[in-house]
Amino acid sequence: MSELNPISDGIEGRLGRSPDAVPRILILGGTGDAAELAAQLATRNDLEFISSFAGRVSHPKYPIGVVRVGGFGGIEGLISYLIMESISVVIDATHPFAVGISRNAEVACARLGLPLIALVRPAWQKQKNDLWHEVTTYVHAAEFVNKKKGRVLLSIGRQEVGSFAACNDAWFLIRAIEAPTGQLPQHHEILLQRGPFDLKEELQLLREYSIDHIVSKNSGGSGTYTKIEAARLLGLPVVMVERPTKHTVPAVETVDQVVTELAALLTRTVQDGKQRKDVR
């Protein structure tokens, strides 16, 4: 998380906010963590918040409260939005693989002098009896499973499926919320499903399709972890795409930690405002 400095008079002035106005929080979301955070903040009357996500699926699950959908138009667009909406604090609760928006948020907040709270849930850790082949890119994952010439559960979302388009020697069960629109591997079947999935469902799926390998990105969290548990129980190898580095600032790992850090930030901001009034 970025250093929690009270918002200065200069920033408040540029954002057009009265020192007595309640803080406005921007949640960069699209994840279960972001939805949980919105639900917690909705119970408070000492702040306002807006949840924002890219909207890459046609029927997303909306969190409670005010929501905006769509991109910002890069760093400059995000800066303009933060000023226009008088945002006081940004909380990045995006997916661990959503690198672009996270890096843009860091730059935008640094340029405006706004606090940034970064939430990055812990990565999955290899357990006893896990058969993981860890790779750094989707291309490396594709090369590995194609050489094995088996039946693959491809569970990475739809955006990166194109990395497997040249795989002609493996068969893929492509599971996604919506159908991929780009190039696909020659031998495949598309399964449109939205998680979370329970362990029994995952075991049945792997057996029904005679899956030999699973390709997964290391998203962390509990929502899709049951496929990893199922692979462990069945002795199936998992090609695990390692997560990229999202932030250069320290991050917290849970929604409760975000709430705690936000409370500390708002308390310090209020105290600083009172001190400025006393001086005047």
Q: How is this structure best described in words?
A:
The chain is α/β, with parallel strands linked by helices and about 280 residues long. It has two domains: about 10-120 and about 245-280, 3-Layer(aba) Sandwich (Rossmann fold); about 130-240, Rossmann fold, CATH 3.40.50. About 35% of the residues lie in helices and about 20% in strands. The strands form two sheets. It has a six-stranded parallel beta sheet with strand order 6-11-10-7-8-9, sandwiched between helices. Helix 2 packs across helix 8. The chain starts with 8 loop residues before the first helix and ends with a helix. Mean pLDDT is about 90; it is low at about 1-15 and about 275-280.
What summary fits the major beta sheet?
6 strands, parallel
Q: Judging by the overall fold, what is the CATH architecture of the largest domain? A: 3-Layer(aba) Sandwich
Q: Structural class of the helix and strand makeup? A: alpha/beta
Tally of structural domains = 2
| Rg, alpha carbons | 22 Å
State the name of the first-level CATH class of the largest domain: Alpha Beta
What is the averaged pLDDT score? 88
Order of helices and strands: HEHEEHEHEEHEEEHEHEH
Percent strand? 15-25%
Number of helices: 8
Low-confidence parts, pLDDT < 50 over ≥5 residues? Answer: 1-16, 273-280
Spatial order of the strands forming the largest sheet: 6-11-10-7-8-9
- Outline: elongated
